[in-house]
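User: I'm preparing a small set of examples for a lab meeting where we compare how different chains pack in three dimensions. I only have the primary sequence for this one, and I'd like the structure in token form so I can line it up with the others. Please keep the answer compact; I'll paste it straight into my notes.
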Amino acid sequence: MERAADEDGHEGREGLGARERDILALERRGFPGPGAKERAIREELDLSPVRYYQLLNALLDDARALAHDPVTVNRLRRVREARRAER
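Assistant: Understood. Below is the structure token output for the 87-residue chain.
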């Protein structure tokens, strides 16, 4: 049973909101060159890149995101862990 989305596009505990789904969808895409991803973040999601990456990082720890798109979430978790290990 899925709850209806609120006015911000966030759903109840059972599913991701529209913004969270859009963030994961953007991460699945490839970008042709430097700056293209940041431009897409600003134009398509109306977010600053800094805020986008804050939301993305929190999303990687969300079980709902893992259930929604396990391939993307697991790939991004591996990248995040590799970067942490380099520090």
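A couple of notes for your slides: Residues 28 and 59 are 14 Å apart (CA to CA). Residues 70-86 form the longest helix (17 residues).

User: Perfect, thanks.
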